[in-house]
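Objective 1b of the project was to move from sequence-level analysis to a structural picture of ligand recognition. The entry below was assembled by the postdoctoral researcher (A.K.) and checked by the PI before modelling. It contains the amino acid sequence of the target and the SMILES of the bound compound, adenosine-5'-triphosphate.
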Amino acid sequence: MYLAQLSLLNFKNYMQADLNFQSGVTVFAGDNGAGKTNLLDAIHYLSLCKSYFNPIDSQQILQGADFFMVNGVFIKEEQKDTVACAIKRNQKKQFKRNKKEYQRLADHIGLFPLVMLSPYDITLIMEGSEERRKFVDNVISQTDHQYLDGLILYNKTLLNRNILLKTIAETGKYDPQLLEVFDEQLVASGNIIFQKRKAFMETFTEIFNQHYQYLSEDAERVELVYDSQLLQDDFAFLLKKSTERDRVLERTSVGIHKDDLQFSIHQMPMKKFGSQGQQKSFLVALKLAQYSFLYQQKGFKPLLLLDDIFDKLDEKRVHKLMQMVSDNNFGQVFITDTSAARMQDIFDKIGVEVTIFNVHKGQVDGPHKR
Ligand SMILES: Nc1ncnc2c1ncn2[C@@H]1O[C@H](COP(=O)(O)OP(=O)(O)OP(=O)(O)O)[C@@H](O)[C@H]1O
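Corresponding predicted holo structure:
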């Protein structure tokens, strides 16, 4: 599967852009702030119906305009699919495939799988557990619709249970049966998510380890561990046990919304003990594992978007990474970098042909085949 065309109208710093791509490696090169990452984000919209960086759609509209449009053409085997996303200020997002509008955006997720790696991903290591859950959810959702539906249901029920806990605290009126209704719903969807996360992590961890070892040439030992309260005990039992505490806290204190991933290096937390290069390598391995997992599950190659990834990686690791992504196991890869010459040099050494687009203040010049 690959993206053959991309058209932008009023998207971030682009008034208009029309680009044609081929499978293989494509580079967007240009100065800081030129709009390279914005091109990757437009591609992210086509695949996952949203920005990778900013959840507020209207903020992606070119300043001064009142709508944006991103259109793309994907080629999968012999099939050609057009995908169109339009955002107007204060209006519902319009998302179409082959001119037919989706009623549920969730139905689009997974059709054109994609993996993005960007400097922003450091939040996965540095920030709270929510970022890491989002990562897991993103990967599984692209391969399993039941998971996404279960997650949506769980989050809705959780919200309602928390509202009820607040109302109980405010009014002093406690109806245990009403709470039990929410508990049952929460346990049903929560258990499905838990089982799927657990199974996913078993496969994923192994793939992750292989990628990290390859990248670092076994230089260090890292670990990725799934952490959930539900690994200790049955969810229904835990929820019942925490009723009194939840009433005091006015929110639900147990469940899969507390799950986390632990990242460690030589058995110490990656956040505190990993060097910047080791942290970056960890993130690269995580995303390459995501790629391999999606490929395994889907049976075709996802898009790989590498945003500004050379910072902090030593030359050896950069070389290994580029060699890896340009071999046959990867399909279409988009890379951004400030230097076209550096990219050219790296790919010349590997002996791989790349297509380079030069980006300058919201204008794209190319393709230049090298
Ligand atoms: N809604 C918007 N309207 C107009 N311009 C925008 C909008 N959103 C972002 N921009 C502009 O887009 C530019 C950033 O583009 P982008 O992040 O793609 O740069 P980049 O080429 O990847 O740079 P770097 O090398 O620094 O990562 C900034 O100049 C920013 O002001």
